[in-house]
Amino acid sequence: MSVIKIQGTDDTPTVTLDKENNIFEISGRSLPEDVVVFYKPILEWLDEYKNDPLDLTVFNFKLEYFNTASSKLLLDVLLKLEDINNDGHEVLVKWHYPDDDEDMEEAGEEYSDIVDVPFEQVPYSI
Amino acid sequence: MANIKDHNESLDFVYDFYVKMKRNNINLAYEGEITHQITKAFTSLAETNMAREEDPSSVQKKVFHVMVECLQNISKHSEGSANESAKDGRGIFMVSKAATEYNVTTGNIIKNANVEKLRSILENVNKQDKDGLNKLYKQQMREGSISDRGGAGLGFIDIARKTGQKLLYSFLTIDSVNSFFVLTSTISRIKE
């Protein structure tokens, strides 16, 4: 299946969705001018991936910043992962946050409350 | 004023404006169309300034966040001005810095017909404590959808919970069609 590799900018995240090499990651900053347009290919890719996922999908989120409109689209991404998990394919979400960033830590906790998928909080120091 | 061509009038205007900005600790004021480029430029400017001021990174992040949400509110919701030639997505945007806090103020035109709806959204946000805001945010994220203007209906809730302060707002009726909506968000510079 195709690979998504988007290089991040100061307002859009780096995205890698690569089934072959087992890399699933969204990192950096997310405040795109049009969130729906930016996340559409990502959600479509996950819809396709859902049909034949790996036995274990480890999805890494390592975001520095996202705006509220992006938060809604990130939830949509997580809901796709929940579907995969519900279909009996293991999923692990790793939520990386700077260890001094309470807001980003809380955002992870919030998503883990909403979405029914194994969720691991991973602090890192800058 | 019609123009500032007249030399003396210009001097008076500029000096008066300068004094008012100084007196109110305004370090950024802008009136015009809020585009994505403007949003990026202002937030990047604020980041540079705050890094120089050595504000704690948590404060810097909160100011950045509030600025983004406020600027996007104007670009998505402002209704153009009473002047028919003006486009949507315009407004006034100001950032002030005092010893203990940053204030981000926006002003933009909205239709009178939308005032009550907006007021009730803001009243509801201001009624909530931290848990209530978190609940509201989750609920809106789950049940809401991205509007055709690109908003998620989460901005006010998130400003309130990230700043831990009530939103200050008011509406000024301009004429039978339009009102002016002013919103001030306060971010404490003192680390909790």
Can you tell me about this structure?
The complex is a heterodimer of chains A (126) and B (192). With 126 residues, chain A is an alpha/beta fold. Helices cover 37% and strands 33% of the residues of chain A. Chain A has a single domain (4-124), classed as Transcription Regulator spoIIAA (2-Layer Sandwich), CATH 3.30.750. Chain A contains three helices and six strands. Chain A has a six-stranded mixed sheet with strand order 1-2-3-4-5-6, covered by helices on one side. In chain A, strand 1 and strand 2 form a beta hairpin. In chain A, helix 1 (35-49) runs parallel beside helix 2. The longest helix of chain A is centred in the middle third of the chain and has 19 residues, at 68-86. The model of chain A has no long low-confidence stretch (mean pLDDT 96). Chain B has 192 residues and is an alpha+beta fold. Chain B has a single domain (27-188), classed as 2-Layer Sandwich (Heat Shock Protein 90), CATH 3.30.565. Chain B contains six helices and five strands. Chain B has helices spanning 7-23, 36-53, 57-77, 115-127, 130-143, 155-163, and strands at 26-33, 90-97, 101-111, 168-173, 178-188. In chain B, a hairpin with a 4-residue loop joins strand 4 and strand 5 (178-188). In chain B, helix 2 runs antiparallel to helix 3, helix 3 runs antiparallel to helix 6 (155-163) and helix 5 (130-143) runs antiparallel to helix 6. Chains A and B meet through helix 2 and helix 3 of A and helix 2, helix 3, helix 5 and helix 6 of B.
Descriptive tags:
heterodimer; A: about 130 residues; alpha/beta; Transcription Regulator spoIIAA; six-stranded mixed sheet; B: about 190 residues; alpha+beta; Heat Shock Protein 90; 5 strands
Our Rg estimate of chain B from Cα atoms comes to 18 Å
Percent range for helical residues of chain A? 25-40%
Shape of chain B: globular
Report Rg of chain A: 14 Å
Task: Tell me the β content of chain B.
Answer: 15-25%
Instruction: Look at the structure and name the CATH superfamily of chain B.
Output: Histidine kinase-like ATPase, C-terminal domain
SSE string of chain B: HEHHEEHHHEE
Structural domain tally of chain A: 1
Number of helices of chain B: 6
List segments of chain A where confidence is low: pLDDT < 50 over at least 5 consecutive residues: none
Q: Please tell me the CATH architecture of chain B by its name.
A: 2-Layer Sandwich
**Biggest interface:** A-B, 22 and 29 residues
CATH topology of chain A: Transcription Regulator spoIIAA
Mean pLDDT of chain B, nearest integer?
Answer: 89
Strand order of the largest sheet of chain B: 1-2-3-5-4
**Any idea of the CATH class of chain B?**
Alpha Beta
What top-tier CATH class of chain A fits best?
Answer: Alpha Beta
Regarding quaternary structure, what we see is heterodimer
Instruction: Count the domains of chain B.
Output: 1
Instruction: Report the CATH architecture of chain A.
Output: 2-Layer Sandwich
The count of helical stretches of chain A stands at 3
